Amino acid sequence: MAHGGGGTAMRALIDTLFLEAFSATPHAPQEDQARLPLEALAAGGDRLAFTTDSFVVEPLEFPGGNIGTLAVCGTVNDLAVGGARPVALSAAFILAEGLELACLRRIVASMAECAREAGVRIVTGDTKVVPKGACDGLYVTTSGVGIIPAGCNISIAAAQPGDVVLVNGTLGDHGAAILCARGDLALDVAIASDCAPLGGLVETLLAAAPGTRSLRDATRGGVAGVLSELAEASAVSLTLDETALPVRPEVVGVCDILGLEPLFLANEGKLVAVVPQTEAETALAALRAHPLGRQAAAIGTVGEAGPYGPSVVLRNAFGGRRTVTMPSGEQLPRIC
Amino acid sequence: MRATERIIVTGSVQGVGFRPFVWRKAHLLALAGEVRNRGDHVEVLATGTEAQRNSLIEALRQGPPHARVETVTRTPDKRIFTGAFTIATSEAGALHSGIVPDLALCPACRADINTPGSRRWRYALTCCTDCGPRFSIVTDFPYDRANTTMAPFTLCAACRAEYENPADRRFHAEPVACPACGPRLYYTGPAQPEEDPLDSATHLLKQGGILAIKGTGGYHLACLATDTAAIATLRARKHRPTKPLAVMVANTDAASAFAAPSAAELLLLQDASAPIVTVRATSALPEGLAPGLDRIGLMLAYTPLHALLLAQVGQPLVMTSGNRSGAPQAIDDETALHDLAGIADGWLYHDRRIARRLDDSVRAVVAGQATTLRHGRGLAPRRLPLPAGFASLPPVLAMGGDLKAAFCLMQDGQALLSHHLGDLHAEGVENTARQALADYRSLFGLTPAFIAVDAHPDYVSHRLGATLSQQRALPLHPIWHHHAHIAACMAEHGLGPDTPPVIGLALDGTGLGPDGTAWGCEALVCDYRTAHHAGRLAHVPLPGGDRAAREPWRMLLAHLDTALGPDATTRAVAQGLLPALHNRPLHALRAMIRTGLNAPPCSSAGRLFDAMAALLDIAPERLSHEGEAAMRLETLARQNTHMRPDSLLPDMRFALARTPDGLWELNPAPLWKAALTAKERGIAASTIAAGFHAALAEGLADLVVKLLPEPADTQEPLSALPGFTRAALRTVVLGGGVMANDVLVSALVTRLEAMSLRVLRPAFAPPGDGGLALGQAVVTAARARMETI
Ligand SMILES: [Fe+3]
Ligand SMILES: [Mg+2]
Ligand SMILES: [Zn+2]
Ligand SMILES: [Zn+2]
């Protein structure tokens, strides 16, 4: 692959590759922007949700997904947890010289497939090719817009004492999958990333539990990261039941070896939901009925913030409790 | 010539019977005048002849048994008092309350409860000015009965007479009580065949049951120390498989049944602070109390309740903190009844409320010196007078560390180190710490100008301090962990703020170093303001981060791979020389080490001990409590029967070399080679363990030598510390939790003192993280002054 404007033939090849994969109607006229009819948008709700994210991952392809599906799911999920129905995405690529064309093809194809599955179109995009070494293979930036139905007011600041905390499945699969996929850890376990678009699951949940207060996808920082933000934003204390946390035994095994905790590992198809106690059971049942929520679980409860403010506390099998705190950066040893 | 003097006495002079002491002396000397508490000091106005007044001053400098007089100042006063000397009512208002630590049962009160016919025969809650609860019952300032948890109990006529009679040893003993008017004892348990709570509790214990007992600073769980089954049950119910259990004995004679305390240890045991003292166990030590160790934590019965119970039971009792796994010790009855329901079979308690949780203090004689290992009940709140020069420095609140949290207030040339608060990550401890902070601030009246914290940004204590500094708009000073360890020891040994630099040896688990690596075996050349990194243990990876601190085999792999290379290690595993590494995910760990995934470099001494314990097959796969492997290694070293392990293991040593960035680095590679060879040759593990301790002491001493001035370069300026030359370096200061290791410290001190160096060791403040706050406070104060010049 040659970079810049140099190789005209290559340029055309790449453009075709993206166009064929993403265009709903091939050979439609190419404008400089995607055009979304307002009327159709307005019919779906009363607010536009708009989000963007950049994706960098090593390796580019891993069990359960690749950088492309990650980019689609990440942005779709950021829209979905706001209660928005995803409508359209943009995708921008920075490619390094030397990236295998076959690899790019696979990634782009799975992106298109993932977008279809998520019910969203990739309507605009861009590609730049940079010299080898200026970028690690491939970077992707996706932005997305979605429509928030009228009356839907999901917020990280809306959790209330008495509410129940749910997750839609096992923790840390993506983080563990990436660590294993790097290969250099010589860990002989097969863990697939949980990378999945959660729009449908959110719709199901909101239909079953319209009183849902908060939703967050638990990506970097893991479920612990989301819960810390949630406790802070809602000014509440969260108590988690360690025995209720759904974790794959393979992930437990990897974490044991590496000295990591599933609660802090990244997910790409997991959300944390806070629902009123009265709707907890129906919400859980609805999640479990959905293919992306079969292992959903109630993992904790919301309580009043203590005299000194919000906190997240993990209760173990023996009833012991400890405070969950997020490291400010890279985790540094603490035991003296 | 009769004249009047105003005499001010400062120090720990309240709650220790100081005023009646003065009253008695004044009456004996026929002086007129009065005495009163004035917040932070006692004020005496005495009218009499110069000879009379001088005699009084003489007595005041001594004070009653538990007082610690710091200063006595006298000024002339115009008033002339006539008539009898009186005790005036105490006053509030000043800083420092003079609130003192809780005191162990005194001989006179012990006699009272054992004397049939005495008003207080078998009364479990008696006390006098020489003994009883103090800090554990204080709710407000000043120290008066109304400001203690004794406030709800109205004195009966007999007690009031004692309380008001200056000649009585209960004069103004705020918690004074008797069976008629004081708190009462209760028992809750399954069957209660006995009328008397003491009898019911005795019955339960004798049957092998587990009893929750309300003590001075919290609940304990007790069982017969001689009953293996009861001990096993207690361990199982508390989820505490191997951590040593403290034992309470009625008296020192009872202690000698299974332990052999030295004379110095006996003194510590009988101290008014009644700490847990770690002493040598004899072969008669009941099973299960301290698995794998040759020491046992002993304490004497320190309240009348304990004394009565032990006398009735007639046997030593296990006395471990009364809490659910992971939770702090219960102090209120409701929590105890609820939380300990799955652990205790019965509850022996009373209706005198505990105002604050105070864990038992732990002390030990380390290399001949009494050393505080946990600063708790009976020790806190003691004020440490700081050397001259600190008095003029701004007040500081230092937040301490995380795992053995304790903060320190520094003001007016004194440091007040809080009691041990526990692990800030455990349930409720953060809130306890905040409450204690508020308590100390109101009881002792500190208004800090600076907040000091450990430099580790993820310490809970760091975040608490940062929040406080924001809320109160006070400057925040992050202090490097190991500098604080050394500075704490400097301060308690009287080194002033302008002291010439010292050589500090700080050995512990890990603390964040300025270079971003995990420090833990460091040589510093430092004064209070500046610390220059001069030496360290060579880096090894910490595979798994904090997980490596719980699983010693990880450190064994890290050390052996670093020292000998993976191939040699793998060969040794294949030869069956390293059972600790059998069936472990070595590939994955090596990959972590290779790629740096959660395997940060460390120079930890604690992890070196862990690795050696794993090599010698005395470390469990996963430690159940901190220091477990290191304590077993120390025990093993003491079992060595060879007088000189170094003659048997001449190659067991550290290499010492200078790194490109000028650090003197102790490299354990030769040591690992020698240890593995020795193991292969079948040399006793105890000899290898002893050789290891000797080698470390030797290596540290050699490192110190490298930092000492050569005659030729004594005038060479210390680039790191402007204004000082190398000639100043004659003092070695020790710090960090590893300095509780008697075998190591004994060898190290011997070596250093043989070089005519002055060696300072922690005694007042714990060498471990429990003493960090003191160091943080003095460093910050010294720096703050520098900033204001
Ligand atoms: Fe430390
Ligand atoms: Mg985003
Ligand atoms: Zn007494
Ligand atoms: Zn009475």
Automatic annotation (TrEMBL), chain B:
Transmembrane segments: none annotated. Residues 4-89 form the Acylphosphatase-like domain. One of its GO terms (biological process) is protein maturation. One of its GO terms (molecular function) is zinc ion binding. The keyword Ligase applies. Pathway: Protein modification; [NiFe] hydrogenase maturation. Keywords: Hydrolase, Ligase, Metal-binding, Transferase, Zinc, Zinc-finger. Its EC number is 6.2.-.-. Coiled coil: none annotated. It holds the Pfam family HypF_C. InterPro entries: Acylphosphatase-like_dom, Acylphosphatase-like_dom_sf, Acylphosphatase_CS, Carbamoyltrans_HypF-like, Carbamoyltransferase_HypF, DHBP_synth_RibB-like_a/b_dom, HypF_C, HypF_C_2. Involved in the maturation of [NiFe] hydrogenases. Along with HypE, it catalyzes the synthesis of the CN ligands of the active site iron of [NiFe]-hydrogenases. HypF functions as a carbamoyl transferase using carbamoylphosphate as a substrate and transferring the carboxamido moiety in an ATP-dependent reaction to the thiolate of the C-terminal cysteine of HypE yielding a protein-S-carboxamide. Belongs to the carbamoyltransferase HypF family. This is Carbamoyltransferase HypF. It comes from Acetobacter peroxydans.
